[in-house]
Amino acid sequence: MAYIIRDDLSYSLGKTEVEFFQEDKPPLDAFFDRTDAYPGTIIRATWVSGTILSPDVMPRRVRLIRGEAMYDWLVVRGGATLVSSRFRDAVEQLDPGRHQFFPVVVEDKKGRAWPGSFFIFNVVGRIDSIIEDRSSFKVTGRGQIENWSYQRVGPWQCTLNATVIGDRACWIEHHHSECWFISDRLAALLQERGLTGFRLDERSDEITR
C-alpha cells in the first residue's frame, strides 16, 4: 500500500504560512530555470522532480508570516516543503541517506528564531511503478512529448509495482509527478509518532510483478 502525501489545509490554509525572504529567491529561481531534471531531457528541475538540488542556492532561513504555530509539515510559498526534525528522523529511519534535508532557521514575525530544527525537504528519486492496466488513468501526450503523463479518470484507482518501488519510503512517479508518494510503512510511522500538518490521499495498491 502507498499514499500521496500533501499539506493538510486545515493546518495551513489561512492559519500558518511561511515564505522565503525576497533576497533569497533569485539564486533559487535561476537554478530551476537552468537545470534539467535529468541529463539529456528537456524537463526542468522542480521541487517535486526527484532531482538532487544544489545546497549552494538553498535559502538558510524562512519566515512565518501568518499564524502562531508550527507543524511537522508545511508548504513554503513557492512550492518547497518545510519539515521538522521529527519528520526528517522518520524518513531517515526508513530511507537513510537517500533524500535531501536542507537546514533552515524559521523566523517569527519579530525576527526571532523559532525553537526546534527545521529543514527544506527534497525527495530524491523518480521511478515508473504505475501498472497502467490496473489503474484508472488516461494517457496525455505519449508518443508526442517527452514528459507525457497519466491523468486521473473518475474515482482514484492506482496499482503500483512493488518490485520497482523496492525498499523506498518516498518517491516521485515519473508519469504522475508534481506529488510525492510514500510507503505504508512511512505513513504508519508518521501517524504513530503523532506528526502534524499533512494528509494522506489517494491510497494505492501494490503488487509484485
Query: What string, H for helix and E for strand, traces the elements in order?
Result: EHEHEEEHEEEEEEHEEHE
- Give the DSSP E fraction (strand runs of 2 or more residues): 25-35%
Q: N- to C-terminal separation? A: 15 Å
| Strand elements, count | 14
Q: State the major sheet.
A: 6 strands, mixed
Describe the structure.
18% of the residues lie in helices and 34% in strands. It has 5 helices and 14 strands. The protein has helices at residues 9-12, 25-34, 85-94, 162-165, 184-192; strands at residues 2-7, 17-20, 61-66, 73-75, 81-84, 100-107, 118-122, 126-127, 137-140, 149-152, 159-161, 170-173, 176-183, 198-207. β4 (73-75) and β5 (81-84) form a beta hairpin. The model has no long low-confidence stretch (mean pLDDT 91).
Please sum up the structure shown:
This protein is of the alpha+beta class and 209 residues long. It has helices at residues 9-12, 25-34, 85-94, 162-165, 184-192, and strands spanning 2-7, 17-20, 61-66, 73-75, 81-84, 100-107, 118-122, 126-127, 137-140, 149-152, 159-161, 170-173, 176-183, 198-207. A hairpin with a 5-residue loop joins β4 (73-75) and β5.
What are its keywords?
5 helices, 34% strand, alpha+beta, 6-stranded mixed beta sheet
